[in-house]
TrEMBL record:
Pfam families linked: FxsA
Signal peptide (from-to): none
Keywords, sorted A to Z: Membrane, Transmembrane, Transmembrane helix
Transmembrane portions of the chain: 7-26, 32-52, 73-99
Domain of life: Bacteria
Stated name of the protein: FxsA family protein
InterPro entries for this protein: FxsA
NCBIfam families tied to this protein: PRK11463.1-2
Amino acid sequence: MAKRLFLIYLLVEMAVMVALVATIGFGYTVLLLLASFVIGLALAGSQLNRHIRRLRTGLSGGLANPQSAVSDSVLVALGTVLVVIPGLASSIAGALLLLPPTRAAARPVLTGLVARRMPLIVAAPAGFGAPTGTAGYRHGAGDYIDGEVIDVNDVDPYRLPPKA
């Protein structure tokens, strides 16, 4: 899976570079690549500082929705990584993830991906996780069933017909 994603990344970046070089020339393509990298890093730094402040206020109880703060932080981190990865397409995608309106649009997609990957966590009723069996019996709770295992052979192996 990782090899496929890397191959897709390479193909997209190469297609963007070839198209830009053919359209605006090599020098301007390099300048555009450097400009997108610098702008993306500046945007990433400001957004990281903003989210660190937001998470610190959230720890003291001033955050209304901690789930959105966590998902925004994940999207800011992803955007920062995409900005730092070399390539114009990844830098633009990372810069878009660093902008708050784009993050608001990407948040449901991230939530859907995480919800599909994570196992279902359900709140159990009180006492549902109580020890049962021997552990419950030792502590005075649960059922204890005393039993014996008997191995039964219906066929005597010594009286089988000889192999032909």
